[in-house]
Amino acid sequence: MITKTKYLYLLLFSCSILFTSCKDAKKTNDTAISEGDTNLPKLKISENQRYFMTEKGEPFFWLGDTGWLTLGRLTREEIETYFKDRKDKGFNVVQVMVLHSLNVENVYKDFALKNEDVAQPITTEGNDFNNPEQYDYWDHVDYALDVAQKNGIYLAMVPVWGTNVSKGNKVNKEQAQKYAQFLADRYKNRTNIIWLNGGDTKGNEFQDIWNTIGNTIKNNNPDQLMTFHPYGRTDSSTNFHNAKWLDFNMFQSGHKTYAQDTVKTSFKEDNYKYVNQDYVLKPIKPTLDGEPSYEGIPHGLHDTLEPKWNANDVRRYGYWSVFAGASGYTYGHSAVMQMFRKGDKPAYGNRELWNKAIHAPGAGQMVYLKKLLLEFPYFERIPDQSLVANQGEKYDYLAATRAKNYALIYTYNGKKITVNMGKIEGSEVEANWYNPRNGETTKIGTFANKGTQDFQPSGKNEEGNDWVLILTSK
Predict the structure, then answer these.
(1) How many angstroms separate the most distant Cα atoms in the chain?
(2) What DSSP designation does 185 have?
């Protein structure tokens, strides 16, 4: 029989054991974060060279976010918050700058470089966060990589932002080689790194620097994918498509409206045209929009009186480019890309705090694009505009993609879709509407798979009343 005294003793003993276990569990968790004991699968190019896949052969749809200043602006706790949120919203890539500037320091006042020289990274022995003598800028980068890994996120890292090279010529070839070798050596065992060479810079300038960085990292770490993040309204393929270090192409479709962009040769808001351009190149390489217009940023960036791009726009850029054959899509928000906090000097008129902006409507809607594509045989998908019998221009454009047994057609503004049937297998097809705003599917009916067939979405003909018509073989 257990007496009251013995019961209280056992209860206190159990609590003591539980407290000790919790402490040990915390220690174990901290160790796992610091040591990174569970690697994410390596990423590879798919067999058809169009898309990404894991080393296990599983489809990997790149759903990225531009958290450019994460490494310099966020605390360890904030990094935990940010990456956990992005995981919950379906993101699997976050694009960051390793060096935003040559005098960059992180939130803990740790400088990355000695004498603003990329060839002289400041490193200390050990990585004890509670000991300032040991914890340095690069340990903080390591921590971010570990937290990203824990949340299933790959960091797409820009070694040094382009303006540090293009303005003032502050990085020479020898320095670039030493710095790239440092990065290659430090991160050779990381499986959740993708390299974005360049960084919002023109590919026809300082090619010796970019090729040195690209070749050095790639020769040492061939399993880490690499591309070039180019200047606005340009594409990596223009200057680096045949570079041995470039595994896939990336374009920056930019932030101007149709009316603001007066360059005759520009694709303007038609970001799918970059995909069309890259799709026919040899050798075949994946491509994607790595920086479209950000949610919450003014049209054209600099005039804060202009309207701001919104969730409708970021969805449109996503579906247009992916249905054209892109291997993924990168979303962005003005406050998040600069990790804006109270007291900061705002860029582009932003006043919204980053930890509020992560919940912007567009950020939560991106996952529906990813989910839709992964519902169907992924590697079979090809772009096919011949599905559309009533093609329009600008916001009336209808984007179409298909495989053997399914077809997807996107309308941005509720425009009627007239389909040239018979493009997929089967004597009949089942038709459904998919809502990019909430991921819900509504059945339309069954139709003969021949001739032409009209499909009219519900709602007004207006920007943001976007729908995907899903046709599947019966």
Answers:
(1) 91
(2) H
